[in-house]
Write a structure and sequence with these properties.
Layout: E1 2-3, E2 6-7, E3 18-21, E4 24-27, H1 32-45, H2 56-63
Antiparallel strand pairs: 1-2, 3-4
Length: 71
């Protein structure tokens, strides 16, 4: 895994899942066991990462995250 040519360890990385539905971005919530499966798949499959210089908190604020919506 590389970040602009530098090796990156994803072992302790956090994952945020987003879906685009009808042109709008939605955050995704799921049960812990399902999230662990998705995290493993993404971490094993990822070939490179692109830094955004933003934190997960800033992302949630930008998306207007105010809590979990059950659907």
């Amino acid at each position: 895994m590389t970040d602009q040519g530098k090796k990156v360890n994803l072992e302790k990385a956090q994952l945020t899942v987003l879906l685009e539905i009808n042109g709008r971005v939605h955050m995704v919530a799921m049960k812990s066991d399902r999230m662990q499966a998705i995290e493993m798949l993404v971490k094993v499959s990822a070939e490179s990462v692109i830094p955004t210089s933003r934190s997960q908190t800033e992302l949630c604020d930008f998306l207007g995250h105010k809590g979990v919506v059950q659907g």
